[in-house]
Amino acid sequence: MVKVLVGNRLPEEGGPANPDASPLTNPFGVDFDSSGNLIIVELEGGRVHRLDTNGHLTKFAGDGSRTYTGDGGPAANATFNAMHNLAIAKSDDIYIADSWNNCIRKIDAKTGIITTFAGTGESGFSGDGGPSDEATFTYVMCITFSPDERYLDIADINNHRVRRIDMATNIVTTIAGNGEKGVPTDGAIAMESPLVDPRAVTSDEEGNVYILERGGHALRVVSPDGRIRTIAGTGKQGFHDGPAMQAMFGAPKHLCRGPEGVLFIADDQNQAIRKYDPHSQTVTTILGRGHGDPDIRLKNPHGVTFANDRLYVVDMGHDRILTVE
Q: What is the mean pLDDT of the chain?
């Protein structure tokens, strides 16, 4: 069952002929705090919203401008530049991928104060082995905590690397990518291999790190021994379900883990949500292009988050959040 959580069904989906304007502008990522509030970040809108458990939506950071202000003060006064997603810690501290500002911002749950947690605001590649706030990145796209929150993983897309911050020490390291653009060889050492354009990253309890490549049209994994291999996608843009290594994607943008180790993928140009099953090693389409709810029409879906026994889909092009049960 598909429900619209924020926004509207389109008229062609059975919605009203003249739907109310959505309160969101290009939402890109969502995550939950421990109280069940849904936190939403916008790319173009430049705002951070909270949808509480009663369905009330309020803005609590960002004014829509593409700037970089507010550090050291209340998050309500902060501004951002093209946020791509966020990750909320068990402490309810909110970490935001402030992409075009080349950094990760942190909103402290106890004080509401915002600071820059990683990055200097300047683009570049530096700082491995040192503290996160002295490192440089080039377009921080998506960030995700490891299941135990020991690490915060970062898709540092224009550096062609996946980097990691140890949350106990704040030390930055690279775990995949050598800075060159290219398709990695299966079985090669991940840190010595090229990457096409790592767009999103997530990990599992066994220490596997999954990397989604937008222009690479592929899903890859770095195993605990530090070696990388492709597990889904031919590398060519297209749309095809079936055996994972024969599957085709269209500039996939984001991924998340679901039950039993499955991965959900926001397949942007295919206007679809795909599922990779590691047990059957297959890719299927669960929403969009007539799948799932046949009435639903996705437009550039970006974020996917699994929580509360359901999948949350950020249908960016229609300024809405959907749930799939």
A: 97
Identify any residues that bridge with 115 across adjacent strands, giving them in sequence order. 106
Note the pTM of the prediction, 2 decimals.
0.97
Provide DSSP, 1-66: -EEEEES---GGGT--SSPPPPS-SSEEEEEE-TTSPEEEEESSS--EEEE-TTS-EEEEE--S-B
The DSSP bridge pattern shows strands 57-61 and 83-88 to be unpaired
Half-sphere exposure of 184 (CA within 13 A, CB side): 33
DSSP states of 160-198:
TEEEEEETTT-BEEEEE--S-BSPPPTTEEGGGS-BS-E
Q: How does DSSP classify residue 276?
A: E
Rounded CA gap, 269 and 308, in Å?
27
DSSP, res 298: -
| Number of residues written out for the chain | 325
pLDDT tens-digit map of 120-169: 999 999 999 999 999 999 999 999 999 999 999 999 999 999 999 999 99
**pLDDT digits over 184-224, tens only?**
999 999 999 999 999 999 999 999 999 999 999 999 999 99
* 5-31 pLDDT per residue, tens: 999 999 999 999 888 899 999 999 999
